[in-house]
Amino acid sequence: MHINYLVMEFTLEKLEVYNIAEKFSDDIWDIVVKWDYFKKDTIGKQLVRAADSISANIAEGYGRYFYKESKQFYFYSRGSIQETKSWLSKCMRRKLIATEICEPLIELCKKLLLMLNAFIKFVRNSQKKESKIIPAKTDKPINQ
Length: 144
Known about the structure:
It contains 4 helices and 2 strands. By secondary structure, the protein is mainly α. The chain has a single domain (12-127), classed as Up-down Bundle (de novo design (two linked rop proteins)). Strands 1-2 form a two-stranded antiparallel ribbon. The chain is elongated, with a radius of gyration of 20 Å. It starts with a strand and ends in a 6-residue tail after the last strand. Residues 130-138 have low confidence and may be disordered.
């Protein structure tokens, strides 16, 4: 009798907060890439870096083995969300992004923050595993 293993994978790409953060940073990029040099060089680069670092820090934290390390990167991501909100507010005040475009982006930052906080709480309350392995008895060899 052979033992096969059923593997349930918990991948980064299935994490909703990560996927929303990735789409969000692409939306920011699409806005900033159209700006003239001065706007891109002053606020644009800062805004894109802050938005990009939201999902990048989630990814880096997710890749860490120990919870304490993971948590630190999730907290960096929280800081990046707040920084992005600040840059978006400046963009709106300086009329670089129209209010009707900017306000929903700021609201999405707030949603991301809530989702990230919930994820941190979930991870804190459970063991961090990338997969759950369950032995299953079968007559078939593993490679078939």
